[in-house]
Amino acid sequence: MTEPARTIVNVPAQAKRGEVIEIRAVVQHAMESGYRRTELGELIPRDIVRIFRCTYNNVEVFRAEFHPAMAANPLVSFTTRATESGTLVFEWRGDHGFSAQASASIRVS
Amino acid sequence: MLRFSLQLVGVAALSVFSVCVQADIPLADRRSGEHFMRAETRAMQNDPTANPATFALLEGEALWQKKIGSADKSCFACHGQAEKNMRGVAARFPTLSQGRLMNLEQRIQACRVEQQRASPWPYEHRELLALATYVGTQSKGLPITPSNVEGMQAHRDAGRALFQQRLGQLNLSCAQCHDARWGAQLSGNPIPQAHPTAYPLYRLEWQAVGSLQRRLRNCMTGVRAEPFAFGEPGLVQLESFLMWRARGMPIETPGLRP
User: Do A8 and B208 touch (CB under 8 A)?
Assistant: First the structure.
């Protein structure tokens, strides 16, 4: 894939300090398990996203390891506490040098 | 497909008792496939940030602007803004264009080959589905208005005949499931009414966006018939009949199904 992978992130635009907020992030990826074969019996090489990370003003607030049994276009949903205004950065890394990034800002009052 | 085929063994026994021609579903009783889904799946469909078909939509939006082929033209160069000029288009396909019966994907393919002068995509190519999703979404919420171009009725009639014809080793017609047994369970899965309102759509079982033809081929394999080839006129006639059968129902592209 030459074009950058598409992502969708869902972060509330604003929140009250101390509030628990829900965050969702999806990345466009086939998540080829490495266990499937072609019609000719050849193994299709594994091609998955391995790591997902989210930082909030440069502090890691969430990290997940992905495995071959996960669906295509994996969706991650998690919560964190709104501490201060700033930026959330999302990062996915995977097989064959796959990498995708997204970011969203939040205003905390 | 294996899962689906095995489930059908139970239905084969049922088919012995069925009648040959089913009455059409009364207009007021028609329900989109969405109606038969679990609440969680419906919520996933209706939230663009959770529905993976959104990626196809975004990709289609980008492709609309991309200059390609030896004509070096984008879709936008001839059609302008899709929001304005493609509104309602998907709601009246398939239709006849210069005498040729075409579904939406075939129409887009024809523009790629004849207008942009680029090499054709294979069926179910990601970019073709992305553009069909983008064009389809411009009709979201609009009622299906089957084409009344002269000659269409004959194709719809042929489609209806196919819909009612028994197929495959299980010897079942589309109508036996979708007109006569909608709402019943097929080993835990509800049988929908088979309205083509949300295509192309993301099917969780496929892990991908697919066309209505892919869905129809799945149902043919399900009754252990040899499926029609992609693009075969019979499939487009079936599509034409299904769109007429769903006339007036709103387009829901980009949909999601289990």
Answer: no
Tell me the ipTM for this assembly: 0.76
Q: End-to-end CA distance of chain A, in Å?
A: 41
Cα Rg, chain B, nearest whole Å:
18
CA B66 to chain centre: 26
Q: Domain coordinates of chain A in residue numbers?
A: 46-74+83-109
Alpha-carbon separation of residue B225 from A30, A50, B166 (angstroms): 29, 40, 10
**Does domain A46-74+83-109 match CATH 3.80.10.10?**
no
CB contact under 8 A, A24 and B52: no
How much is the pTM?
0.89
Per residue in B195-228, pLDDT (tens digit) is 999 999 999 999 999 999 999 999 999 999 999 9
- Helix, strand, coil percentages in chain A from 3-state DSSP, rounded to 5: 5, 55, 45
Contacts of A100 (CB under 8 A, 6+ apart): A4, A5, A7, A27, A91, A92
